[in-house]
Amino acid sequence: MANTTTLNQQNQAVPLSAPTLSWYVVYTKTLSEKKTAERLQLAGYEVYLPLVEELKQWSDRKKKIQRPLIASVVFVRCSAVALNGVYTVQGVSRVLRHLGRPAVVQPQEILNLQILLQQAAAPEVQHMQLSPGATIEVLRGPFKGIIGTATQVLNTLRVLIDIRHLGVAFSINVPKSFVKVL
Fold first, then answer.
1. End-to-end Cα separation, the chain, in angstroms
2. CA–CA distance, 27 with 87 (Å, rounded to integer)
3. What pLDDT was estimated at residue 172?
């Protein structure tokens, strides 16, 4: 069993801090996101695979399917040390890197994706003056908690949800009265 304490300068036992858990982007082989996410979970990783439901039309039938929101991407939450173990999981292609190190996805970006996927339709837009480019937070309604960038498009407020490390952005419409400028 590993030692979970250390001694401080006064020779008192002090518990070692737990490793910091962060979200990372793991790229998968093409069309294997669901299987890879399942395998990562079986390997003990916390996994988030954002899925969207869509109606698929075949020549003889229609069927609702769930497809990944971002192709070939699975989010994994683990310590930086444990991240190297994902390469042993079948279906993992690589880990997104930034400046030579694994790129960390902010928890707010994961929360934004979760909130976004819970809602199918955006509420109606009300008119209010708001400058484009302002960072805003949605205070109420179905998208409560999302932090993004406001943009003006044809007198409607659009909130841009940007995941910079992936080069992916989503936009939603929200009533202007539901937001505050940060």
1. 47
2. 10
3. 80
